[in-house]
Structures are given as C-alpha cells and as structure tokens.
C-alpha cells in the first residue's frame, strides 16, 4: 500500500535528474555573470550615458543589495507556487532585465533594469541553492550542490571575462544583449529538463525568522557573513595588492585573476568531494586557511613568486566556500531547506556589498596592508564561530 508523502520528502524520484542539476548550474553561471559583468564595463557605460565610473558602479551594488532582499522575500511572496515554474519565471525576468539593460536610453532606466536583475538573482539563487536535495539521491547531494555552485566559479573564470571582451570589441549593449539571449536559452533548458517541484508548504516570515532559533543555522549565517565580508574586503583590492605589495606587473594582473578563478573551480569540486563525510572539519579548515593565507600576504607576499603562490592558494580555498556553507545550511535545517537557503543567500549577497565597502574605507584610511589585516581578522573570527559548532550533531 502506498505511504503518504511527508511535507519534507521530495515529490520526485531522486537520482534520475542530473541533467536538471546541470541546467540549474547553467542558471547560476548566468546569474553571477549578470551580477558582475558591469565591473568590466564601467568606463564604456559611463562614457555612453554621461555618468562617472563611480555612479556606473551602482550597476554592481544595486543588484547585490536587491538580491539580498529578494532572497527571502520572493519565496514568501510566491507561497506554494511550483518551484519549477518559479525558476522559469525568474529566468524570464532575467531575460527581460538584460534586454532592458541593453536598450536603456539613459542611466536611470539602466538602474531600474539592474533592480529587476537583482530580484531574479536573489529569488533564483534562494531556491536553486537547496535544490540538490530534491533532484538526486541523498548520498549525491554534496556532489550535486558542488555542480550547481560550479556555475559561480565558471562565471568568474569564463562568463565575466568573455562578456567584458565582447563589450570591448563591440559595444557594452551587445554584451548585455548576449546575456539576454543566454538567459532565454537557460529558460528553455529549465522548461525542458526540470521535473515538477511542488512546494510542500509556503515559506512564511515566521518560519523564516524562526530559523535563528536553530543554533546550526545561526552559526552558519554568522560564518557566511564573516567569511564573505572578509574575502571581498580584500579581494576587491587584489589588483593593487598584487601590483603594489607583490611587485607584479600590471599586465599580468588579469591573467593571474583568471588563474584565481580556475583554482576556485577546482576548490569547489574538492570541497564537494569531502564535505559529505567531514562537514564541520571542512568548513573549519576553509575559514582557517583563508584567514592564514590573507594574513601571510603582508609577510610572505612581498615578492612576485610569493604573491602569486598565495593568490592561487586563496582561490583554491575560497572556491569551496559556497558548496560547503550551502551544505552546512542543508544539514543544519533538513526540515526547512528553502527557508535556511533563503537566509543564507540574503546574508551572502549583503556581505559582498559590505565587504567591498569596508575594504574601501580601510584602503582610504590606512596603508594597503590594512585591508589584508581586516580580512584576516574577520576570517579567523569566522573560523572561531565554526569551531563553536563542533558539538552540533547534524554538522559533524
């Protein structure tokens, strides 16, 4: 006799939807490319729309902040809407947002388009981050999560550089237009391969905030905030660090950042392979290694060889952050994966903006080494927070 399905049990047969996992990974690739592409297009956009590069930088800040709000807000607002249809709708919004960016006649309308992109980024990531538990067998969840977040690293290695080159060779509007086409391709792929993903229950604000009563979730959110803020406070200024502290020629900075991204992709899959059996130790090792690596820079990174070595280690270790922390949230709240993921995505995106802001403040007030000290302290504080969760049974 058929048994009744529990609210937290997937409504599909696990283990047969790896093609859907790869389609979602393509979606995360697009999201991160869309979020960060303007970094390489600030000058041409500023010139075309008669705004300063500082004002043009809002094309990056605005969607990050909006995504932080949208991550918890979208699941609450859509209630029990089928998650397959929600992901498709958000990718449709991303298609329109990039098209609007490409056609924007002035700067205010471009920012409005970037707001729409932020909604799509936050909403899609909040749902997609915890989707592996509904697409594959339990034993394969960490590996599937690594695949989904592999799209993040791939965007940094391939998506953003290729988009920047395309915009430089043609026009910045062409780059955004190409993103719109890619978003449409992802939309079709999601329609074709995603199984029905009925929501077992709506995400309510009460249940969302109630996750903070879960010690594992609290520590995961705190660790995410400290790690991401620390990383971006220093990484935002990695170009000047390589040039001014390590003595690397300006022309090599771009290729070295590409190497950082390649190392990050490798780190993502290494973490995915070990995190299932050693979750707490993996996250603790990542936070500690990041803190030590960044703090070593002012001492061991004062030559080109030392700086490049530390950069590669930094990229390799940071590459495991997304997969490991998302797995942490899944394990900490197995009965509320979507709520915990929404909180995690909100904090992650907010920390990106705050990290860059904090780093800029320190760089303006102190020598360049100061931003590395700040990042190192935050990262070691994250390691301490993770260590404090050593007795939480679900995180061992």
TrEMBL record:
Principal cellular location given in the protein's record: membrane
- Where in this chain does the record put each Major facilitator superfamily (MFS) profile domain? 20-394
Q: Which CDD domains match?
A: MFS_NepI_like (cd17324)
What SUPFAM superfamilies does the database record attribute to this sequence? Answer: MFS general substrate transporter
User: Which InterPro entries does the record cross-reference, listed alphabetically?
Assistant: MFS, MFS_dom, MFS_Efflux_Transporters, MFS_trans_sf, Tet-R_TetA/multi-R_MdtG-like
* Transmembrane portions of the chain: 12-34, 54-78, 85-105, 111-133, 145-169, 175-198, 219-237, 257-276, 283-305, 311-330, 342-359, 371-389
**What topology does it adopt in the membrane?**
Multi-pass membrane protein
Annotated keywords: Cell membrane, Membrane, Transmembrane, Transmembrane helix
- Residues in coiled coil: none
Q: What domain of life does the UniProt record list for this protein's source? A: Bacteria
Subcellular localization(s) per the UniProt record: Cell membrane
Which protein are we looking at? Answer: MFS transporter
Species of the source? Streptosporangium jomthongense
